[in-house]
Every structure is written in C-alpha cells, then in structure tokens.
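Summary for the steering committee. The consortium agreed at its last meeting that each partner would contribute one worked example illustrating the joint modelling workflow. Our contribution is presented below. We chose a case with several input lines so that the handling of multiple components could be demonstrated. No manual editing was applied between input and output; the record is shown as generated.
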Amino acid sequence: MKISFLGLGAIGTPMAAHLARAHELTVWNRTTERARVFSEQHSARLAETPRDAAGGAEIVITCLPTSREVESVLEGPDGMETALARGTLLVDCTSGDPASSRRIAARLDTRGVGFIDAPVSGGTDGAVAAALTVMVGGEAPDVERAMPILALFGKRIEHLGPVGAGHATKAINNALLAVNIAAVGEGAAALARAGVNLEKAFAVLNASSGRSFVSEKLVPERVLTGLWPRTFRLALLEKDVGIACAMLDELNVDGPLIELARELFRQARLELGESADYLEIIKLIEQQAGVELRT
Ligand code: NDP
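What follows is the complete predicted structure of the assembly.
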C-alpha cells in the first residue's frame, strides 16, 4: 500500500519505521534533515512538502504535536488538502483534541477523504516494540481499513466511537497520568524527608492499594535511578491535560484535580522549558522539599 507519514518526532520515527518494513512509505518532516536520514535508513521516499506527501497516497498518517499542526499541514499552497485524492484516508496519530478532529473530518468529508483519530499510548519503548495501545475514533469502515496498518505498531487497538473518541480517551488517560505523577512525586518527597528507605517504601506501595504505573515503572526506573531519560516532552503532557480540561468544561463536569494538575504542569513547563521530559516535574518537587529521590 502507498502510505505517507508526516511527523518524524520521538514517537513518530519508530512508528514509521514499522510501516517502512511492510509498505511503500513516503515521509515528510518539518526539519528536512530528519526525514532525509530516515528515508536513507529505511528506503522511504522523501517528500518535499506535505502536498507532495499527500499526492498518490492511499493512507496518510500524521503524528504531530497538536491538532493545530495537523490543520497547518492541510492548509496553504504546500498543504495536503487539495492533493488528497478521493478515497484517501487520513489517520491522525497526534494526541489531538476532539473538537478539532471533528472539524478536520467534516472538512475532508466534503472532498471524499476519510479521517480517523488514532492517538497512541505506550511511549517510545512501546513504539519500538510495536506494542502501542491505539485509541481510535471514526466511522467503522474507515477504522476497519486502517486496522492492518495500525497493527504494525499497535498491540491493543480499540475503536472507541465516532471521530474524536480516540482523542478524548487519550486526553483523559494523560490527565490521569499527570495527576499520578504529581501525587507520587509529592508522596515520595514526604517519605524521603521522613527518613524512610525509598527502595523499601516503593516495594511496599507497589504491593499495596496506592500503586500505579507511575509508582511501579516510571519513578523506580527513571527517577530513583537518577537516569531521567527524555522520551516525552512535558510540554506535550501539559497540552494533553489542557485538552482534558477543555473537555470537562465543555461537558459541564467539575474537575478540580485535573485543573490543578494542569496548573502544576503549566508552571513546570514555564520553569523547565519546551524540551524537558514529563517526569522532570518531580525535580521541582525535589527542589521544593530539599530532597533527592534516589535509591
Ligand atoms: P516530538 O516533539 O518529538 O516531535 C514532534 C514532531 O512534530 C516532529 O516531527 C516535529 O518536526 C513536528 N512538528 C512540530 N511542529 C510542527 C509544525 N508547526 N509543523 C509541522 N511539523 C511540526 O513529539 P512526539 O513525537 O513525542 O509526539 C508526537 C505526538 O505523539 C504528540 O501529540 C504527543 O503528545 C504524542 N505522543 C507522544 C509520546 C511519546 O512518548 N513521545 C507517547 C504518546 C503520544 P521537527 O523535527 O521539525 O521538530
């Protein structure tokens, strides 16, 4: 199949690599050098513009920071919109926002182009291992058509409802992740200050009812070890919690916890900058508490 992939970032690159092994792949990236290196390593065609990537493709995949960038690669003289042939399917793997996705889908529908939202979870390791969870929103025939492609990088692929349902679920997942990271960081800082052995404390927490993916995996492997790998930008998680807040607002659901997590991550983004990793918010908790969470 002729597939085009736009957005060779931290997670897009390993996802696209799986596609290159199975299909005729074209890639486009804002910074051309990244796309050039990818195209050489994976024998993919290098597109000069989003429009060039769209021409001749049966399925186009976007994996960009937000829905704003997805709209921007559709628009303008170099944009994809007018080059997408009738019957093409746009699969948006960006963690985007449901309202924008519905707008994009309606716009493409007038041109006979399908759209599904298919954001992913599982991190860069999950992408390399082709073990991502894919949260899909869209019309059933479009979702069915995309399934074999999504299966090249996804292990659990769930069709959650109409367009926007994938992005809605992803935003709520990441809001829960953000609440958890802040809570585990605060709790661990208190235990460190209380002189509790952190290795033993985490072993106990992880055998008890307070455990979570953050306490079982992320903090022990990345914080307590002092490794702090950069895999997912804090700025992107803050964006996701913002999408969740907008959803709650629109749906008239009070969300003081999620709102507070948004504010904490917004402040952290300002302090730590655009390239900081999402777990680095725990560095701010460490600083405030005057402790280092290490075993
Ligand atoms: P990165 O920041 O690593 O990469 C972003 C990509 O988008 C790059 O290819 C970048 O191009 C491109 N881009 C940025 N701005 C623009 C623009 N204005 N126009 C066109 N292209 C642009 O992000 P990730 O790969 O980490 O994330 C991509 C999406 O996947 C996000 O929505 C994120 O929330 C989500 N996600 C990420 C996960 C992770 O573990 N990293 C996990 C799950 C979801 P350039 O090379 O020029 O900078």
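The longest strand covers residues 154-161. The chain has a mean pLDDT of 98.
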